[in-house]
């Protein structure tokens, strides 16, 4: 059994036991987070009905915080002496899928 869940701004395919990195969610290590399922697949049965999915729950355990790769933003304008450099690292959270209940 697997599910497609909405995690932050993306959709992820998950099954029980998977560890994935998603956008930052509030919670400490060991807390439980619920993710919204968009699709459930159990063998040959595919569920996309909104009423059934409203009752379905995908639970995940927070493993800890993480950071994304360093992104360097550079701006430069020729002949004016203008240049600007800025860096960014996206805060992320690692979670482990513990259960998928339909």
UniProtKB/TrEMBL annotation:
GO cellular component: cytoplasm; ribonucleoprotein complex; ribosome
Annotated function: This protein binds to 23S rRNA in the presence of protein L20.
Keywords for the protein's UniProt record, in alphabetical order: Ribonucleoprotein, Ribosomal protein, RNA-binding, rRNA-binding
Gene: rplU
Key word RNA-binding present: yes
Family, similarity comment: Belongs to the bacterial ribosomal protein bL21 family.
Protein name as it appears in the record: Large ribosomal subunit protein bL21
Listed GO biological process terms: translation
Keyword RNA-binding: yes
Subunit architecture: Part of the 50S ribosomal subunit. Contacts protein L20.
GO molecular function annotations of the record: rRNA binding; structural constituent of ribosome
One Pfam family it belongs to: Ribosomal_L21p
């Amino acid at each position: 059994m697997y599910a497609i869940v909405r995690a932050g701004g993306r959709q992820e395919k998950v099954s029980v036991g998977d560890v994935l990195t998603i956008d930052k969610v509030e919670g400490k290590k060991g807390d439980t987070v619920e993710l919204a399922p968009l699709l459930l697949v159990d063998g040959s049965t595919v569920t996309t009905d909104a009423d059934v999915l409203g009752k379905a729950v995908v639970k995940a355990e927070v493993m800890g915080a993480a950071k994304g790769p360093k992104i360097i933003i550079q701006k430069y304008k020729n002949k004016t002496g203008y240049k600007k450099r800025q860096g960014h690292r996206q805060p992320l959270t690692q979670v482990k899928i513990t259960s998928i209940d339909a």
